[in-house]
Protein: Major facilitator superfamily (MFS) profile domain-containing protein
Organism: Grammatophora oceanica
Amino acid sequence: MSGNDHETGVAGGNGSNASNATPEGYRRSVSEAASSQQESQPSCRVPPALASIVEWPFQIRSVEAGKILPEATGWSMDAAAKGPLNMAGTHIGNALIVLAMAEAGCTSRQCDARVYGIRATSILPVTSMVTSIIAGLVMPIVGSIVDHTSHRKLVGSLTAFFVVVCLGGQIAISEDNWFIMLCLEGVGAFMLQTHITAVFAYLPDLSMYEHDFIRYTSGFNVRQTVSQLLHAVLVVVVGILRPDPVSRIDGSIRNARTSASIAFAVSSLLFGYSWIVLFRRRPPLSDVPEGQTLVSAGFRRIHKTAQLVWENYHALKWLMIALLWSPEVGTGLILSITTTFLSVWLEMTAMEISVISLAMLVASIPGAFLSRVVCGVLDPLRSYQLALVCFMGVAALTAGLLDSPERKNLAYGTGVMWGICIGWLYPTQRVLFCTLIPRGQEMEFMGIFTFFGNILSWLPPLLFTILNERNVSMQWGLSLIPFFLFASFACTLCMGSFKQAVAQISDEPKEDLSLPRREISAGTDPIPMSSRSFNQDNLDAREEENNEEKVEEEKV
């Protein structure tokens, strides 16, 4: 591959894409610059013909440069691999609830019987809560490893491997081993959250232009949704072709096994190819500060970065506070609460839950395109606020309408509305955060984005469990979702306008908000430059400057 800036063709695993001229004045991102260096290419090479076939459905071309980056294709594959995992979690979760209720002797949704000291209907929220607490404590350490070592790719690869292993073990779910499967569900969820920390570290490297970020995040979400959709279709088709189950327990187990088997096959292939072939190694962002360890550095860095944001970036500060309350799909809030609500409160069968999931996923595809359109017509901030309001209204409507199993048919309609909102909200959230990250500080802030997005994910399952243990209607438990969405929306109102927010973090003149956020000049090694762009020394220096300013103000 040519190392010339204007001749760099970036393909998937082999870098064999057709060469396109880079626009004059274009400034390359870290991944784009790395693709021009032969030594930065993936160590595992596959035949070009095979690579073009495997990678084509996942490739997203940069709007600004017209290039296809290996990491962008890898991000697409990774997102598509996580799609079936979320679906399998829903089906396995339903089976775990049914099996726990059967062991406790429950025959109705109002059953008070307990297993392992809690109500059988509380097992998923409790597992999610414990997983979220552990992940919140470990995530800064993982972020420190990603930032201060060259093991970013290793962390992503190993966590993806363990996620797939846990899922493969759950194929054997049965009445006799449901508690072991519940433990595997918790371990797999923890590994998945850790994996997200590693894969998000690659996101800022993809481009320096807002239009590219909108295109990338929308494309990633569409591919994840399509993979979930195909998974849901296969599960439904297999369920229809298979003889009717003899009981609800039998149907739940068979559905969970089918879902886990399909997800295991798809995720193994996509995770394997993306992390072996496409994602490339990155050097440390910075060295571990003197006097600190790899463990303490992670917590210290989060504290300093949060303090820096709090004192200098008004809009970004309120966005981070909003992230505390905004639920992420697949984490404790959405998955455990909704699965429990459908399985227990509405007494839906495994097949009915599969159909609702299918309807929701079909609707999320236009939601993803809606995100792209609204971000372009308005701006990412207004799009995010509108998505939060819509999601809040739909969740509140769902909690109010679905008051008994007799009204469960309404769940199909609300599922469609949920799908549109989910497809709209989460790509917009990522675009907004990426565009508000201060120039040259992308690596630092992607870690804190993941941290703030998960730090309170244990709270909704805890509140849901408290309500459930006190025999409060699950409608109130489901109403936690619109409450948290409203809290997130209220925080975004304090951010001001999008133009003002961008102006705060731009080093360029405020009147020109379209300039890229980081420059990598031709002929410059992009990787060491990125590593020096915003390290611990920068944080320390900025903190000292702030302290000196405070002292001067006090003297005055």
